[in-house]
Amino acid sequence: MSGAGAPNSAEQIDGSGLNVVIVAGTWHEQITDGLIAGAERTLSASGAAYSIVRVPGSFELPVVSKVALDSGADAVVALGVIIRGGTPHFEYVSSAATDGLTRVALDTGKPVGFGLLTLDDEAQGIDRAGFPDSREDKGAEAAHAALTTALALRSLRAQ
After folding, report:
1. Are 63 and 97 in contact (CB under 8 A)?
2. Is 89 a known active-site residue?
3. pLDDT for the residue 10
4. Which positions ≥6 away from 40 have C-beta within 8 Å?
5. What is the pLDDT, as a whole number, of residue 12?
6. Which one from 3, 70, 89, 106 is the annotated catalytic residue?
């Protein structure tokens, strides 16, 4: 598990005044719903306002994230699940979504919390989805990263 050395995402953040959009794919619904729940817990606890937009799959995360940020959101939490299959499709979609989300963050100058799980099997996703028996909560971690980065950018821009 890659969670060793992770920052403390349980740290309380004051997200008051921030508007965040969770953009989530619809593939692998059980895992994705767990990721959304983790992001919602973190955003609610911070006091940030948030909304959820569902998209067909991970490939669509970048374009919808860009529009959300261009429309006034302070940050996006992008959540998706891609499970390796027997064709190169996994590599193409994973790469396109990752590169696209990076470009969105750089082009807009706003944070994109990266909650795109690229997995070998469903069990890995269940273990990262923030369920009571999961070892990690990647939805909460992505929301925490988006909030922390939005606050850092706000501070830098105020200087």
Report:
1. no
2. yes
3. 59
4. 22, 50, 52, 139, 143
5. 85
6. 89
